[in-house]
Amino acid sequence: xxxxxxxxxxxxxxxxxxxxxxxxxxxxxxxxxxxxxxxxxxxxxxxxxxxxxxxxxxxxxxxxxxxxxxxxxxxxxxxxxxxxxxxxxxxxxxxxxxxxxxxxxxxxxxxxxx
Length: 114
What we know:
Elements lengths: L2 E7 L6 H11 L5 E7 L6 H11 L3 E5 L5 H11 L4 E5 L9 H9 L8
Parallel strand pairs: 1-2, 1-4, 2-3
């Protein structure tokens, strides 16, 4: 596993498909796992994420009671298996070529990539 993508969510039904669709489009060229960590959403966020998880075996959803984004990130890190971890929060936007751009830097001596 090269990249673990940790997506933290909370009541994010309006945007989550955009993130997941962008990642799914890029998957075939990358060895990734996607860990969606839901922080107790009350809307249809979990339902939408479950649909993606059922369709794509590299997408996993983890739910827990509302405790904040920091705990969600830590849970995602604990479950990750990748050499590198990429965080996406519910107010972020991922470009359609983000994994390609990031992959270019993974072969350098960079300690951190933003």
